[in-house]
Structure formats: structure tokens, C-alpha cells
Amino acid sequence: MKVMPRKLLLPFLLAACLIPAPAQKAASEKSGQPPAQAGKSALDKATMEAYARHLYVMGPAVKVEVLDPKPSVLPGFFDVVVRASMGNQSQDLPFYVSRDGRKIVRGEVFDVAENPFSRDLALLKTDGEPSFGTPGAPVVLVEFSDYQCPFCAEEAKMLRTNLLSAYPKQVRLYFKDFPIEQIHPWAKPAAIAGRCVFRQNAEAYWDYHDWIYAQQASITPENLKSRVLEWAKGKEIDALQLGRCIDTRAAEADVDRNIAEARVLKLNSTPTLFVNGRRLVGRLDWPTLRSIIDFEIEYQKTTRNAGEEACCELKPLLPGVAGQ
């Protein structure tokens, strides 16, 4: 489900020019700080805000904040983030601004010697997260999902139905909670309940995952706990301990850690799936995902710059519990 209105889900601007300004002084180049500019410059926050508003048709209902310039990996440029927001919803728009303030660039900078998804790979943390598949697999999927999101339910069913049958040894999937509380009132309590289950029984967690997505239409904030405890009957779960964990929100920190990671990754919708760091936003169909996984399996046979063998330290999910 989208966090930002569609008007704020903006396409990349490859390059655009601003009104010329005088060249900066050599001393400013050496200092690494933005030089003083005469006339209009993208390093002037009011000018940059006006330019961004015009570029993306952002009217007065949208709050626009231009953050301070920071050193950039792109030589001769600063990183400048324009933050657009409406209420609790926000989106960061990254720009590269030339040191003389005359040019701005929208896009991504890659180093040909590195995996193009290395930045996201470095931010994705999988230790101790619910998972299924083969430890050490050449392809790692990391899914950020919301238990109350209908599109997430469809993608979850697709993944659970197809992934292991098609790839019994080549794939491992990690699940991360990203409840969007502004529009889904029981999504975070459901995520916390799921983590309470996971703390007791890692195998039962995936039963819970499948069950709650299937029951999505009948769950409410009021009946969530009673429905979860009813589901837990007959499972290898201590119901009293589970009830206490839900009431005290004892596993909330586990969910909050996932939410914080999603924010660092600048996610703004669910489901979002990473395949060896490749970001795939929105619900996917199985043929599309399968073609991406097949490509990555072949690519990693020679490159080996992603997947668990290349990037991840394998640890038990819980003490004494092997990977699921």
C-alpha cells in the first residue's frame, strides 16, 4: 500500500540546469563547503525549493524542506535532499548539485567495480529474522510486508506457494515487518503478535504468517488477540506466555527495528521485495519474479557478489534452533 499520494511518487530527473551563477573560489573547493553564490543558485534553499515545486507541481498543500548540502560521492557535486511531506507522509527527493550551484542532477551514481545494489545490501540486516529456504543460498530475498495490506497478502501467498517448490536449494527468504500504521490500525499489533510466536517457536511462525494473511478480512483491532490465541490452540505454543507477550508488547522492539531499517532504506510502500539487493516495489507475479531469480542464479555462478555465501554471516534464528 502506498504511503505517499501518487503525485509525490516522482520519476527520476536525469539532469536539469539552473540559472548560471559565478564560479566558486578555489578556497571553497578546498574547504569542501558550499561556496557563497551571487544570484540564483541551487545551493540557496529558497531557490531550490521553488525549483523543485515547479518541477514536480507541488502546491502549497505540500510542505517542502531543503536539507543542508552534504559531501557527495559524485566529484564536483554536493548531495542535497528535498523533503516533500503532507501530514505524516513524506518522501525524500535526492539531488546532486554542482559546487557552483548551476546544475542539478537526479539519478543514481554507480561504481562499475561494485555490485550496483551494494548500498542497499549493506543496509539489509538478516540476522535473527524469520526465514525459510536454504542457508548459504546464492539468492537471498528480503521482504518488507504489512499484515493488513491486501497486496502483501497476495504476494505472500505467491511466495509461499512457489518459492521452495521451484528453488529447493538456491533461495532463502527473510521476512521483515513494515506495518503502515497511518492506514492499517491492526497491522503493528499483528506484527508484534507474530514476533511473540517467533520467540517461542520459529516453525510455528510461518503457520501464523500464512493464517493471518488468509484471515485478513475478518481481523479487527478488537478481536486480534482472541483470534490469535484461538489459532494457537493445538500448536506447540504456551498460550499464557503468548498472551502476556501480546499484552505487554514485549516483542515490539523487534518490529520497531524492522521499521527503522525500512526508513533508512527510504521505503514508502508495501510489499517491497529485495532480490540480492535489487529493489522490487509493489506486488509481483510469479513469472516476473522467477525470471529475476533465474537471472541472478546464473549471474552469481561467476560473480558471487551477493547471496548469503558472499555477504552474510549465518547465525541461528534462536538459540538451539536451526534455520527454517
Distance between the termini: 28 Å
Q: Helical content, roughly?
A: 25-40%
What is the global morphology?
Answer: globular
Series of H and E elements: EHHEEEEEHEEHEHHHHHEEHH
Number of helical runs?
11
Weakly predicted, low-confidence segments: 1-31, 311-324
Radius of gyration: 23 Å
Largest sheet: 6 strands, antiparallel
**How many strand elements?**
11
The averaged pLDDT comes out at: 85
Structural class: alpha+beta
Walk me through this protein's architecture.
It is a single chain. With 324 residues, this protein is an alpha+beta fold. Strand 4 (77-86) and strand 5 (89-98) form a beta hairpin. The protein has helices at 26-31, 45-56, 118-123, 150-166, 187-200, 202-214, 224-232, 239-248, 252-264, 286-302, 307-311; strands spanning 16-17, 63-66, 70-71, 77-86, 89-98, 103-105, 131-133, 139-145, 171-177, 272-275, 278-281. Helices cover 38% and strands 17% of the residues.
Summarize the structure.
The chain is of the alpha+beta class. It has helices at residues 26-31, 45-56, 118-123, 150-166, 187-200, 202-214, 224-232, 239-248, 252-264, 286-302, 307-311; strands at residues 16-17, 63-66, 70-71, 77-86, 89-98, 103-105, 131-133, 139-145, 171-177, 272-275, 278-281. Helix 5 (187-200) packs antiparallel against helix 6 (202-214).
Keywords for this structure?
5-stranded mixed beta sheet, disordered N terminus, 6-stranded antiparallel beta sheet, globular, disordered C terminus, 324 residues, alpha+beta, 11 helices
Annotate the secondary structure layout.
Blueprint: E1 16-17, H1 26-31, H2 45-56, E2 63-66, E3 70-71, E4 77-86, E5 89-98, E6 103-105, H3 118-123, E7 131-133, E8 139-145, H4 150-166, E9 171-177, H5 187-200, H6 202-214, H7 224-232, H8 239-248, H9 252-264, E10 272-275, E11 278-281, H10 286-302, H11 307-311
Helix pairs in contact: 5-6
